Amino acid sequence: MVNGQYICKDQDGNLLISIDAVDEEALSKDPRFTHCLAVVKVGDDYLLNRNKWRNRYEIFGGCIEKGESAHECIVRECFEELGFISSDMTYLGAMTFLLKPDYFSKSERIELGGLYGITLPGNTSLDDLYKKVADKEEITSLALYSQIKGKEPIALIDEKLLGYY
Length: 165
Known about the structure:
Blueprint: E1 8-9, E2 15-20, H1 24-29, E3 33-42, E4 45-51, E5 56-58, E6 60-63, H2 70-82, E7 89-99, E8 109-120, H3 126-132, E9 139-144, H4 145-148, H5 156-161
């Protein structure tokens, strides 16, 4: 944290501290790099997925696998969670988080993640897109942000990240 400042605090006490212009290759080599996230735009709206285990809507992404670069991680995660490989990805920067103890670690820790933006055509069918989702064990549905805002639980940090793309 810089002078106790942060961008957003979520329901679990995790902090999004900053989003910085760190080179994608440099991020991939940082030992604190653990994951990538993608903000997906559909026309003028945003696409979210409902996470079965956290019981809320989130943006797309996940943890790196051994030896993966940030770009390789987000390509794989988009294939698993959206059923496609997009060449139209924009690297937006490196997110710095202060994370509370959870499933992944019993300790509070600083982690870095890559943030990406993806644009899909405005006429994209959510039903057709969901049919391609490989990880239906984790992702139970897809929805547009405008349709669920104020009606369904949304991960607060992820909701804040929408504004970066």
